[in-house]
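WARN retry 2 of 3 for item q-0093 after timeout on previous attempt; input resubmitted unchanged.
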Amino acid sequence: MTTQVSTDEVARHAAQVAEQGWTVIEAAIDPDLIDRLSEDLARLEKELDTQPATNSFEGSKTLRIYNLLAYGGPWLEVPVHPVVLPVVESVLDAGCLISSLSSINIGPGETAQPLHADDQLLPIPRPHPPTVCNTMWALTDFTDANGATRLVSGSHLDPGLPPYTGDYPTIPAEMAKGSVLVWHGSLWHGGGANHTDDRRIGIAMNYCAGYIRQQENQQLGLPPALVKTFPRRLQELVGYGLYNGLIGHIDKKSPADLLNEGQETKLIWDLV
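OK item q-0093 returned
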């Protein structure tokens, strides 16, 4: 079972993200966790009667489920994974937050998703330091033929953005089941077209810097009673912690302290 990643490996992956905008952590996820996630996703898709969207961005043959943390179970293991999270923290910092956790199940016949950058709605000049760092967990093999994520390597350093219908040379992020793609939020990318008879299934575990608003509203989207059962680190990642010892406090208390009762986090004022 994979339980940790070396400091040198973290630095290598972070350097690749800084240079080319992306990296792949091969064989990152234990097969048992992959199986449990796959089984629970199939259950949820059936119980929720998940259907494709009707817009060109989400795809007409792609199944998506959002806010997966709300379903508990194996999903709670995804954001704090000991191999993936250290790489994300190295790209952002230890104050990063969960932005969203969703599934992307690309079916046969799906067309390529328009290229985009995950931080393109932020009104700040490009290029800029990473404010978003996203990951894609491969629950199946990702190949050029079945819809592997398409990347424009180095585009995180571009001052512009691709037009919604723009056609640019891309490379497929091919990787084996159990591997994880990590990328800078400014990188131009999109889901690939699926020319096979099989589904391409991935989990989008997305993070943002602690000073950026999360894509999914974790505080209202997750019942406090559920969050109270989370490990402290996961509570912090969904937004119950503080950024730099101050941002996000409630009457000089950490939200996690109020949730858990009896604990006390020192604010930045108490540390100087």
